[in-house]
Amino acid sequence: MAYGTAAVAKVDSPRSPYVRRKTTRGNYELYSWIFMRASGVVLVVLIFGHLFVNLMVGEGVHAIDFAFVAGKWANPLWGVWDLLMLWLAMIHGTNGVRTIINDYAQRDLTRGVLKSLLYTAFVVVVVVGTLVIFTFDPCPPNAPEELLASFCTA
């Protein structure tokens, strides 16, 4: 075959109307992108509220101990607040790392192993964190009295 005689792929004219091609992927990546923006905004509010209450109100960082956490989690609002912050942060972070893995892992096996490790870490952290929030006992038996919250009876 001589130079210049090979079959050339047809390129549409720049002025031709755009024809959307059907894809089988659906809108998962679009919804993932929208979720990242929305959860990022909610996380900013949750995190700064968390930091303000823990560091600015009262005695600041020096007051954070077991009794502080016990007193805070005695109120259901703060349990739900911290649970929502945990879940949103983990889903947001996992989705971001999933996107990075998809962008940079070239081999399917590597991508599969990395995503499996990512999803395993996600499940472990979310399950353990949720269990800690829901099973937290603010007044554990045989605890030193100076560490207990003020509402605990010794």
Overview in brief:
The protein is an all-alpha fold and 154 residues long. The chain is 61% helix and 0% strand. It has four helices and no strands.
Write a concise keyword list for the protein shown above.
154 residues, mainly alpha, 3 helical TM bundles of succinate and fumarate reductases, 0% strand, elongated
Any overview of this molecule?
The termini are far apart. The relative contact order is 0.11. This protein has a single domain, classed as Up-down Bundle (3 helical TM bundles of succinate and fumarate reductases). Helix 1 crosses helix 3 and helix 3 runs antiparallel to helix 4. The protein is 61% helix and 0% strand. The protein is built from 4 helices and no strands. It is mainly alpha-helical and 154 residues long.
Secondary structure layout plus pairing:
Layout: H1 28-56, H2 66-73, H3 76-104, H4 108-135
Helix pairs in contact: 1-3, 3-4
Protein name: Succinate dehydrogenase hydrophobic membrane anchor subunit
Main location: membrane
GO molecular function: metal ion binding
